[in-house]
Sequence to fold (627 residues):
Amino acid sequence: MKNLIVVVLCIVFINPIIYAQTKSELSIIPQPNNIEELTGEFTINSDTKINIEPGNPNLELLADMLSYRIKTVTGYSMHITKTSKTLKNAFNLIIQSGDTLSEEGYSLSVTPDRVSLEAKEENGIFYGLQTIYQLLPTKTFESTKDFEVIIPSVKIIDKPRYSWRGMMLDVGRYFYPVPFIKKFIDYLAFHKMNTFHWHLTEDHGWRIKIDKYPELTETSAWRQATQVTPGGRIDENLHGGYYSKEQIREVVDYAKKRYITVVPEIEMPGHSLAALVAYPELSCVEGPFEIPIQWGIQENIYCAGNEKTFEFLENVLSEVVELFPSPIIHIGGDEAPKKHWEQCEKCQMRIEEEGLNDEHELQSYFIKRIEEFLLTKNKNIIGWDEILEGGLAPNAAVMSWRGIEGGITAAKQKHNVIMTPTSYMYFDYYQGDPTLEPFAIPHGRVVSLQRVYSYEPIPEELTPQEAKYIKGVQGNIWSEFIHSPDNVEYMGFPRAAALAEIAWTESENKEWENFKRKMETQYKRYQNMGINYAKSAYNVRHRVDVDTTAQTATISFETDSYNPQIYYTLDGSEPTPEKLEYLNPFPVNKPVIIKAATFNEGERMSKISTEYINRSILRDGKKQNEN
Fold:
């Protein structure tokens, strides 16, 4: 009997088995549109291979990516074989001939004897790999002789809801170096996004090298100081930077290998003061100009009546299109004050000569003329929804940011639309109680994780035929108050996960409670990836319902986390697991200071939130400073 026990113990220690996820714990973000849980598991061990069809260099690159990820998790170096057969104990990556699968779609079969990933095109294989990564353990282990990892058997047939699944990063207001831009692209790829919108020019900085106009980077890429807080505190240090053409190509190639299109934005006619600092002759008023150190819309914009303006922009765009294979170029078009156009003789002459009614139609003329030029370069344009004003350019796509109305108007006019309304998709807004968060845009509503997830990109006002023009959804990170890569990550994640599920998953397959559950695993992945993600979803929100007749307030708590364990106090002391545990709403009939926090296995996960209940609240149902 003792010998039997020794044998069993040896087997346990010689053959450790690590379970990635049980079926009830499947945590795939974005949620696949068709998933079937099968019997059994697939075992990854030292003999497991990666198998691809021969003669496809793109598949070889994808196999290398998979091999690297598996080695990161298990320590194993996967041998890559090249055969048309489907092998046992192998990850088989297969390009499928025929039309069974859709564009960007994939089929993943995990059975006890093999993993088969099929797609019509290589991008589908890439998205399937992101799903495989999320079947692997969230922890990493060192390889041993008989080390095994178990992943559940599943059958997934999946495709994205939208063709544009994007994030925008504003580097015009604050410059981020190339290594971080690559990391940001990796994070988008992990979430099956396919578009990186790179906001390269602004009033506050020009970030792309243009050979014909060297002053754009020698002068306009730098400013003497930077506003740090909404209240106006100034950092007196020189700030700036720009990307060389070699760096731009490097980033574009890096993104291409991850099936992400880089869409550059060159702002016009507004948000152009940095360019006017270098070339003041392109403005309506006499310079010189300075790059502003405080945020805000600037009145000086490109002169629409000056032919040199269009010569300049066409020369700039000629160099831009050579760097970016993207079929679409973003030309801004937003927040262009027309005060100087109204007073400019050249602009007024242009309005008269072109038979325009006003300065809004002059902006439309400006945008249409740029579109006509870019069409000669086989590029289409996209702009913020202000390009609708005065008449939309014939082939222009619209980014609807000032709510959803611009998207509705454009779709009804049969123009492609990307939905990115501020109240859901602006990730520079606070994601929780501002007293618990870093500085952010001071106006507008809180854009919490739940609020992002609740967004439906198809407006009810559109018919099914009109809704087909809604091509995607995008989250935006403007950098007025985001002055480090760590802060970009904090503001972008986990809200990017909610965006990813909106963009990929059909609405009937989305479910908030399930998403919150999956995020508990996603946070572990973020931690392993080194993402400085926000834990704001754990922060406790206080709801106070007052019965003024009884002078009693009923207090309830909620978070954006799954099955939170909340502890609280009523005496202003710090909550701990030894204090009161929140199970149900509770009454308060006297002044108290309520502090609450979320915990997990004794560790505090959230910041401490505070609510003050005073006599005026109990008596009147509102705080003294409320109207």
User: Anything to note?
Assistant: The radius of gyration is 28 Å. The CA atoms of residues 108 and 509 lie 18 Å apart.
